[in-house]
Amino acid sequence: MKxxxxxxxxxxxxxxxxxxxxxxxxxLLTLSKDKWQWMADKKADTLAALFHDKSMxxxxxxxxxxxxxxxxIKSGGIWYKKAHVYSASVNIIGNTAILLNDIxxxxxxxxxxxxxxxxxxxxxxxxNGKWKMGSLTFSKLMRPVKTNSEGNKND
Length: 155
Fold this sequence. Notes:
Nuclear Transport Factor 2, Chain: A; six-stranded mixed β-sheet
C-alpha cells in the first residue's frame, strides 16, 4: 500500500512538472512572437524592458549590446519590418531558455528593404520570475527566401 501511494505521488509530481514545463515553453513562444511585433512596431521602450542589461545582439554587420540595439531600433538604422516565422522551438535548461526561429526577415537597413532567411537564436534568462533576453543572434541560412517581394509566403 505504501509503495502504491509513493508511486502515485511520484506520478503526480511528474505530471505537474511536465505541465509546468509546457506552460513555460508556451510563455516563451508567445514572448518571442510578441518581440517580433514590438520590433516591427519600433517599440523601443517595451524592448528595453525585455532586454537584459548585459544582453548581446549578433547581426550580419556586427555585434553590440542593449544600448546600441535600442538606439538602432529608435533611429530606424534597422527596421525589423516583418518576421515570417516558419518554425520555433524552445529548450529550457534551469533558468535559461534557448529558442530557435526559422524565419524570413523583411527589414529596412540603411534605407534599403532586404529579405533574408535566418535561423535566429534567442537566449532568455529567468530573473525574479520574469524572462529577460540575454542574446539575439541572426545566422543567415543557405535556403532560398520563402516569401515573395510583397511579404507573402510562397506556395
